[in-house]
Specification:
Layout: H1 2-14, H2 17-25, E1 27-31, E2 34-38, H3 44-58, H4 65-83, E3 92-99, E4 102-114, E5 118-126, H5 135-149, E6 156-161, H6 165-173, E7 177-185, E8 191-199, H7 203-206
Parallel strand pairs: 5-6
Antiparallel strand pairs: 1-2, 2-3, 3-4, 4-5, 6-8, 7-8
Helix pairs in contact: 1-2, 3-4
C-alpha cells in the first residue's frame, strides 16, 4: 500500500493537475497491488483475452475443446471490440483489474438492467492463476461503487452456471442469495442450467 501511495503522490507531482486528477479518479478500487479502472476501446483485445482464458478453464467439459481453443478467442475479440466501442450504452461499464501493472480480470456491469432484479453483472472473470488472490472481490466492489455513483443503488444480480461450483461458492461468500434457476443459452447452441444470484442493494457489495 505504501508503494502505491508513493506512486500516486509521484503522479500528482509530475503531471499537470487536471491530468493527475483524471488518472486518480479513474481508479475505482485500490487494494495492495490491485488497481481497478474503467476499460477503454484500446483495452478490447486485453478484455477478450482475459475472457477467453477464464472460459477455457471454467467451461472445459461444458463447451467443446474445439470451440474453447479455436473459435472462442476470435469470437471474444469481435464481441469486446463492439462492446467497448464509442457507441456503447451509457448505463454499462467495463472495469479492468490490474495487478502490478498486469491485467488479471474484468467485470461488465449494466445499471438498472431489469425492473425487478436491478443492475446486472454481465461478466466477471479473473484469470485462473490469479483466482483466490482477491481480484474478484475487488472487481465486485468496484462495480458496486460505479453503480452507486450513477444512483443505481437498488438490487444487483448475475447468472452463474449450476455446474460452476467454485464461482457459486465465491458469490455466496460475497453475500449473494441463490434464487431462481433457469436455462442459459451458451455458444454452440448449448442450453445449460444456471442459477440467479442476487444482492438486495449495491451497497452490500461495496462494503
Amino acid at each position: 500500500m505504501r508503494a502505491l501511495v508513493r506512486q500516486l503522490i509521484w503522479c500528482l507531482l509530475k503531471t499537470p493537475y487536471a491530468e493527475a486528477r483524471a488518472a486518480f479518479s479513474s481508479y475505482m478500487g485500490i487494494s495492495a497491488d490491485f488497481q481497478v479502472r474503467l476499460a477503454t476501446p484500446a483495452d478490447a483485445l486485453t478484455v477478450a483475452d482475459l475472457h477467453t482464458r477464464s472460459w477455457q478453464t471454467a467451461y472445459r467439459g461444458i463447451m467443446s475443446d474445439a470451440y474453447l481453443d479455436t473459435v472462442a478467442p476470435e469470437e471474444r475479440r469481435v464481441a469486446w471490440t463492439q462492446k467497448l466501442s464509442a457507441s456503447a450504452p451509457g448505463n454499462r461499464a467495463v472495469l479492468l483489474a490490474e495487478r502490478s501493472g498486469c491485467p488479471v480480470g474484468f467485470v461488465c456491469v449494466v445499471a438498472d438492467e431489469d425492473p425487478q432484479w436491478g443492475s446486472f453483472i454481465d461478466n466477471l472473470h479473473v484469470i485462473p492463476e490469479q483466482q483466490g488472490s482477491g481480484g474478484g472481490r475487488q472487481l465486485l466492489r468496484a462495480a458496486a461503487t460505479w453503480l452507486i455513483g450513477r444512483g443505481a443503488v437498488g438490487p444487483v444480480y448475475l447468472w452463474v452456471l449450476e455446474a460452476n461450483t467454485p464461482a457459486r461458492g465465491f458469490y455466496r461468500r460475497m453475500g449473494a442469495v441463490e434464487t431462481t434457476p433457469g436455462w442459459r443459452n451458451m455458444p454452440e447452441g448449448l442450453r445449460v442450467p444456471g442459477v440467479r444470484c442476487t444482492w438486495t442493494a449495491a451497497s452490500t457489495l461495496a462494503d
